Sequence to fold (194 residues):
Amino acid sequence: MAFIDDLGNTITRTGQKISQTSQSMAKKMKDMAESSNLKMQVKEEERQLKEVYAEIGEMYCNLHNGDPEEALAEGIQKIEEIKERITVLKEHISKLDNVRVCPNCSAKLPEKGMFCPECGTKYPEPEVVDTDVDAEELKEAKEAEVILEEDAEAESGAETVSEAQPDEEPKQEAAAEPEEEPHDEMSEQETTEE
Fold:
């Protein structure tokens, strides 16, 4: 019976160890989950902090754009340069997309209308093109094109005269050889049937 008692004690101790180990693992898993949750909360708080800093920085730039503190002047200058590049890029995009853009808020403007639906700014007046200047430039361009064509014809005429003599010999040789009629299977079948 001692054997059975020892076996029972061994099983009991093993069960207790398994229970302790599983409890320990469960506690570690719970701690890891809580730690992970806290880390996510910290990341979210840091993101919100960066957002607030960005808002404060933007407000400062808007308030002190013309007269920033010396320590921040270089950063504000970089911001203004980036804004200008963004504006130029957006203008190019709107030209490529054939879309009008509000000069105040950069909203896309509908084709018809007098004011921006977003901010109320009046649409910019279309650029007036001076037709007299365009007509003069067009006339000058046509005259230059005619002169270039005449020069090109004169040069090509001189080249054709010098190239004409070598071309004539192959033509004479080709004339000396008898020309073969085109060989067609249909014509052969017709002659064999007759």
About this structure: Confidence is low (pLDDT under 50) at residues 161-178. The CA atoms of residues 150 and 156 lie 10 Å apart. The chain has four helices and two strands. The first strand starts at residue 100 and ends at 101.
